[in-house]
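Observation: inputs received (chain + adenosine-5'-triphosphate).
Thought: call the complex predictor directly.
Action: predict_structure
Action Input:
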Amino acid sequence: MMLSEILLNMKMVLFGGKGGVGKTTCASSSAIWAAEHGRNTLIISTDPAHSLGDSLGVSLPPGIPTPIPEITNLTALEINPQVDIVDFEGFTNINPIEDMGFSNLPFMENLADLSSLNPPGIDETLALLKVLEFIETEHDYDLIIFDTAPTGHTLRFLSLPQTLSGWIGKLLKMKMKLGNMFGAIKSIFGGESKKEDKSFEILERLNEAIQRAKEDLTDPLKTSFVVVMIAEEMALLETERLIIELENYHIPNSNIIINQLYEDNMELCEFCKSRRRMQQKNLINIKEHFIKKWNKLLIEIPLFPDEIREYIPLHRLSNYLLKE
Ligand SMILES: Nc1ncnc2c1ncn2[C@@H]1O[C@H](COP(=O)(O)OP(=O)(O)OP(=O)(O)O)[C@@H](O)[C@H]1O
Ligand SMILES: [Mg+2]
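Observation:
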């Protein structure tokens, strides 16, 4: 599916790849194009080192969706990496014993290790929750574009629903077991359930949100992951690993942007000619690999003479990204 069809039809489009290859730039440019083609678009940066605001030339207060001046239909959001833990009260430091009102029983100290259960990767988890909150609650956006962090971080992020739902599943099972066990003990010792069991309700809701997000993320009619790379051998290797991981998580991906290519030009200096030769050699391998082996569509983008920032250059880039 062409990038234009993706931007006009999908619900979520993620831009990802190695560090510094042009993910933010391509995501911003695509978001402008989609907004100008009538889609109410939200672009979200999930990279803790945000540069989305810098790219669009707008200051974005952390965690607050901000309409982009002069561009109708475009809103941008940088996820606040310092998510306030109190936003998720009941989710962190879940204590199954205390929550069921048994902490006053004498032998409970032996089970103290249960009281410090925290989900794996708490910071990323909280950031993911913020994202889930956005995509899984009612909103007016037709399209959500994600400007993601470099590969490693993004892959951890994408694997979180899997990790988390396993973790939540275990907790919920443990709760059932403890519940049965303590039901019997309670009738002997008369322990009192003084607190409502709220954290498990939150966990169950969270589990549902994660399942829905997982379904959306793997639905080829709703989601596409656009890979951005440069024409270097190292980028080829990392991009292939990224694609293998995307396939493992069943995240649809069909387009690869090869960015920053030196164009053929009589006036190129020796240095640039050498860079171009290197790129053209790698481009042959890249085509061989990603078109023949992986059946992907490649979009070739030239290296611009100037920095691509703010409306006019970003708009100009979209002519290349979306050309037939
Ligand atoms: N085709 C291009 N021609 C010229 N400059 C480009 C091109 N693509 C991107 N750039 C420039 O390269 C720099 C890095 O781009 P960008 O921030 O989009 O990369 P990124 O992959 O998002 O980086 P990070 O991994 O740090 O998030 C920016 O200054 C951008 O303007
Ligand atoms: Mg970036």
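Thought: report the result.
Final Answer: The pocket of adenosine-5'-triphosphate (ligand 1) is lined by residues 19-25, 47, 51, 150, 259-260, 301, 303-304, 307-309 (CB under 6 Å). The first helix runs from residue 3 to 9.
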